[in-house]
Specification:
Number of strands: 0
Largest sheet: none
Radius of gyration: 14 Å
Strand content: under 5%
Shape: flat
Mean pLDDT: 92
Length: 79
């Protein structure tokens, strides 16, 4: 229960605040910060869990994480 709270709720709230502040500072397009946080933390959490369950897939998970970060930055972060 404690791990679920930390990894899901806490990380979700932290990134929601980060994205909200970035939007207020003009660094990100105005979007729904709660939804962006869910997308961001959900995908990264699933890749971490994949690595934990199947360590031989670490390289693929890292590649997918890199692809996701590049997509997310290109799509939502202003230059």
């Amino acid at each position: 229960v404690l791990a679920t709270k930390y990894f899901n709720e806490t990380n979700h709230k932290i990134f929601e605040l980060v994205f909200t502040q970035m939007m207020e500072d003009g660094l990100m397009d105005k979007e729904d910060p709660k939804m962006l946080s869910s997308m961001y933390t959900g995908h990264i959490s699933s890749l971490i869990q994949w690595c934990t369950r199947e360590p031989d897939h670490k390289e693929e998970a890292m590649r997918q994480a890199g692809d996701f970060f590049r997509y997310f930055i290109t799509k939502y972060v202003k230059e």
